[in-house]
Inverse folding.
């Protein structure tokens, strides 16, 4: 039973990947939109059948006409519903990485495919294919950004599942939907666990780690240069009405080294501690590299460097038998 | 799915459906019980209060369940006297009212909407006029509006209405086509019918009891003759034959009823011999809740389907198989010159000679006195008619009540009454004179609303006498014709004028009589008739006629082709509605004008604009253009940019742009010609 379900799901995945290939931008069209009467639509049809029976049994032409009119209305609705959905273009913004346990947010920009044509109306709903929690968006209320939260548990590189977009506009008789893959990989950093910074010097490869005290010793104030990190601005000075000056630190460039995975703790904890150290070093604009048993990142600083380091941690192979 | 729980305060869709419910309940005021309507009113008030935020939570389900049980018990109690159909309608309204009170989830809302549609459908059981259809279409629009605002809550009302209007316009032709070609089936099973308050004629006539006859101008039926019209003297529409007289009341004889059902079981239908001129016509009878039909003697159903629906009784009466719960159209052929001498003369004679033993002594004496003077039956009958010609007899709609020995009192004391007084007295006198006689009720006359089409109204109701005169069979005598000849020739109104009475005196009498108003009334009567005939009366026969007209002959392959054709037609319609290329693109004026200018320039200069911004394109081409053209194109470009990005486009600017475009085109055309020359 389970095997059959697995097989079926695999087949479905292949089929949908061929039909709606992954892309950061989707223009909804005949190929990507599915449409079927909603539960309410079926109820409506049953009601039409009841009206037909009533009209026939009472030989009442007006009742029959009402019945046919409602059926015709449903037919017209099929096209209105589809057209509304087919006017949409959905673009995903690159997803921002998060720490494990924090929610990531996929931001979808909605726009009209054709500027001269009418834009879509009504409520547009979205949920992850695997998760029925729905996010609503009212297109008539100029909500052109759909924010879909994704809950994370473990560190890792996660290919985001397909997003189901659906709309019951205009009368709820039809459900118009699409399963879109925005080709996004979410990097989930290890959760942070506070730990003291242990930076190995570049030269001393294999040496015992040496403490690097004093790298944040205050040295002098100098004029603020545009582009310098704001955290180094001497706010107290600025607040008193003085010029923008920034604090200079001794040993700022002097010390640089590698962060390494602690061997005495469990791997996941060690990775989390390492993540914490990376963050605190980045905050202090210290140059550092990260060395893991399989890969390393050469010393540097800045937010891109931080992302590279943390991504390295996220991608670190999970230990067999180890728990998260 | 939009939120499964509905917002309560300020939720427009909920309020709209509450208003809709109130309107539907009002439109069903006739079948609905008064307390059910009050309940519905309460439910609507609850919704309004919730909308305005006076309360913050709907009544609890427990409360409503209790209420539902109580209401159900009450309805079961009342339902016994209501009949199944009305009970069901009331039950539906009640359920909707209760649901409306506890509507908190989207599911409730959708269920309620579906029930509303069904209630609208039920409304057509009770009203089928054009105005009813219009009203219910408006209500349907309101229902769809509430549904639309549930699925597109912030769409502006104007756009919601426009969308709905568009949907209605698009759906209507498809619905009409479906209506015309979908097979008109005969009833699948018997439905409960409403016990209606019967209007018009009744199966009992007690002339002495009625102080004043109802003067309703309600429509009784409409007739359209195929070609030949009956003369005024022939326009006696028989409905009922009353053969039982107890001294006061004429009624349909129980013996006759028993005989009828016996014959019906044996399937022995009356088939009188007919001769003479035949009149063919269609009657559209208004609902009466009864089974008798109207026809000019001797009437027979025309065509097989009518034969199936109508039973001919041996007293020349036509009886429908089903009570007339809604308008019913049927076709008849009448032979007004044929004598009514078929049937069981022996049985008929015995039945129509029965008189009560006691009562009305003066009349009995008069009858025996007259019988001695006139030995022939025909002379005796004529003598009675002669007696009524005496000026002391008066025609009135407001006679004094005559309780004791009513015929005596009428003939000798009061001497005033309306048709049934005279008919009753005459038939009684005939029976006393040993001539079989009976009272016939029905309608006489009618108003011609358009050529060959007559409306007959309730105030045309009439009663007359039939006497069996040997060979000639049943002969019609109408004593009213000698008392008030105008009644028969010109109708009730004239007759009353002559006797100094008016019909339902009202301040609008003058208006009512003015020719303009009469024209208007005729027009509406005609519209109503056409509606009844072509829309309400569209049945399997009419459908077959339509197909015959379209296809020539009805073969299976042609019918199949017709259905395929309709499907293709609907697809073409849908393609016209929705194929994007066909629709005119709604470009704003300034964009259209600019694009035209850019086309002209690119054709002249040979430089395509493609997707370049307007300003950049201008700089690309300005060197190629002659001075005045460059000036115009520059102005156009500037105006276009201003209209697109700075201000909302105005009419004035569009007008100026048009002017520049014209001169631009002129200059470019001229220069090009010069160059080529």
């Amino acid at each position: 039973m389970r095997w059959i379900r697995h097989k079926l799901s695999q087949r479905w995945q292949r089929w949908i990947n061929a039909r709606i290939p992954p892309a950061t931008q989707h223009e909804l069209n005949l190929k990507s939109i599915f449409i079927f009467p909603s539960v309410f639509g079926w109820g409506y049809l049953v009601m039409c059948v009841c009206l037909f029976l009533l009209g026939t049994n009472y030989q009442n032409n007006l009742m029959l006409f009402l019945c046919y009119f409602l059926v015709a209305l449903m037919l017209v609705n099929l096209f209105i519903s589809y057209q509304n959905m087919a006017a949409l273009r959905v673009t995903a913004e690159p997803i921002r990485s998060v720490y494990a346990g924090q929610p990531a947010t996929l931001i979808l920009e909605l726009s009209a495919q054709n500027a001269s044509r009418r834009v879509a109306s009504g409520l547009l709903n979205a949920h992850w294919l695997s998760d029925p929690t729905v996010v609503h968006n009212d297109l008539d209320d100029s909500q052109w950004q759909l924010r879909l939260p994704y809950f994370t548990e473990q560190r890792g590189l996660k290919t985001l599942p397909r997003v189901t977009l659906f709309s019951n506009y205009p009368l709820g008789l039809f459900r118009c939907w699409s399963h879109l893959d925005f080709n996004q990989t979410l990097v989930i950093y290890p959760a942070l666990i506070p730990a003291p910074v242990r930076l190995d010097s570049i030269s001393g490869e294999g040496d015992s780690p040496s403490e690097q005290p004093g790298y944040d010793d205050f040295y002098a104030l100098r004029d603020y240069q545009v582009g310098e990190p704001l955290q180094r601005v001497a706010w107290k000075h600025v607040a008193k009405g003085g010029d923008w000056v920034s604090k200079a630190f001794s040993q700022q460039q002097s010390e640089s080294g590698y962060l390494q995975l602690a061997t005495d703790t469990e791997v996941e904890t060690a990775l989390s501690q390492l993540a914490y150290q990376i963050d605190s070093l980045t905050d202090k604009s210290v140059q550092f590299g990260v060395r893991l048993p399989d890969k390393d990142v050469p010393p540097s600083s800045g937010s891109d460097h931080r992302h590279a380091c943390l991504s390295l941690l996220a991608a670190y192979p999970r230990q067999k038998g180890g728990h998260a | 799915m939009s939120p499964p729980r509905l917002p309560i305060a300020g939720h427009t869709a909920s309020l709209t459906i509450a208003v809709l419910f109130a309107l539907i309940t009002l439109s069903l005021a006739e079948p609905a019980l008064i307390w059910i309507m009050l309940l519905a009113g309460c439910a609507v008030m609850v919704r309004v209060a919730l909308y305005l935020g006076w309360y913050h939570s709907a009544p609890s389900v427990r409360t409503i369940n209790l209420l539902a049980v109580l209401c159900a018990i009450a309805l079961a109690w009342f339902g016994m006297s209501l009949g199944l159909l009305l009970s069901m309608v009331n039950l539906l309204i009640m359920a909707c009212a209760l649901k409306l009170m506890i509507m908190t989830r989207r599911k409730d809302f959708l269920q309620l909407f579906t029930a509303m549609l069904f209630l609208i459908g039920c409304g057509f059981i009770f009203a089928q006029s054009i105005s009813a259809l219009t009203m219910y279409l408006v209500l349907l629009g309101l229902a769809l509006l509430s549904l639309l605002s549930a699925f597109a809550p912030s769409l502006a009302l104007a756009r919601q209405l426009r969308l709905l209007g568009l949907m209605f316009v698009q759906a209507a032709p498809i619905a009409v086509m479906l209506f015309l070609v979908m097979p008109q089936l005969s009833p699948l099973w018997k439905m409960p019918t409403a016990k209606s308050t019967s209007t018009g004629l009744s199966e009992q006539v007690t002339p002495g009891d009625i102080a004043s006859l109802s003067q309703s101008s309600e429509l009784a039926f409409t007739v359209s003759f195929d070609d030949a019209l009956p003369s005024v003297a022939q326009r006696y529409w028989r409905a009922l034959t009353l053969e039982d007289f107890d001294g006061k009341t004429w009624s349909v004889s129980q013996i006759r009823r028993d005989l009828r059902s016996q014959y019906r079981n044996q399937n022995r239908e009356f088939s009188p011999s007919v001769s003479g001129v035949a009149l063919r016509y269609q009657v559209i009878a208004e609902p009466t809740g009864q089974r008798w039909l109207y026809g000019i003697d001797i009437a027979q159903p025309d065509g097989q389907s009518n034969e199936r629906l109508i039973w001919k009784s041996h007293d020349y009466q036509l009886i429908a198989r089903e009570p007339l719960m809604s308008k019913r159209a049927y076709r008849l052929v009448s032979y007004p010159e044929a004598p009514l001498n078929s049937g069981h003369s022996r049985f008929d004679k015995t039945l129509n000679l029965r008189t009560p033993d006691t009562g009305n002594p003066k009349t009995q004496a008069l009858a025996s006195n007259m019988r001695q003077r006139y030995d022939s039956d025909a002379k005796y009958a004529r003598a009675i008619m002669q007696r009524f010609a005496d000026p002391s007899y008066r025609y009135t709609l407001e006679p004094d009540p005559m309780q004791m020995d009513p015929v005596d009192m009428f003939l000798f004391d009061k001497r005033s009454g309306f048709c049934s007084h005279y008919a009753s007295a005459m038939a009684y006198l005939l029976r006393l004179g040993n001539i079989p006689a009976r009272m016939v009720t029905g309608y006489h006359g009618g108003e011609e609303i358009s050529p060959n089409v007559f409306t007959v109204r309730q105030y045309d109701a009439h009663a007359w006498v039939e006497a069996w005169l040997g060979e000639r069979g049943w002969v019609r005598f109408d004593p009213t014709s000698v008392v008030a000849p105008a009644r028969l020739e010109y109708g009730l109104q004239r007759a009353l004028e002559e006797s100094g009475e008016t019909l339902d005196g009202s301040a609008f009498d003058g208006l009512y009589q003015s020719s303009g108003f009469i024209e208007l009334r005729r027009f509406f009567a005609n519209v109503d008739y056409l509606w009844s005939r072509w829309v309400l009366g569209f049945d399997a026969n009419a459908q077959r006629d339509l197909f015959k007209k379209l296809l020539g002959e009805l073969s299976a392959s042609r019918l199949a082709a017709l259905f395929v054709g309709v499907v293709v037609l609907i697809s073409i319609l849908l393609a016209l509605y929705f194929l994007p290329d066909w629709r005119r693109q709604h470009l704003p004026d300034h964009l259209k004008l600019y694009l035209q200018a850019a086309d002209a320039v690119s054709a002249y200069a040979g430089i395509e604009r493609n997707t370049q911004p307007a300003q950049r394109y201008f700089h690309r081409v300005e060197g190629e253009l002659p001075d005045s053209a460059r000036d115009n194109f520059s102005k156009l470009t500037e105006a276009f940019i201003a209209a697109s990005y700075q201000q909302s486009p105005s009419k004035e600017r569009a007008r100026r742009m048009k002017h520049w475009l014209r001169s631009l085109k002129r200059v470019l055309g001229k220069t090009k010609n010069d160059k080529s020359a």
User: Anything to note?
Assistant: Residues 651-676 of chain B form the longest helix (26 residues). The CA atoms of residues 14 and 146 of chain B lie 7 Å apart. The first strand of chain B starts at residue 204 and ends at 205. Chain B is about 55% helix and 10% strand.
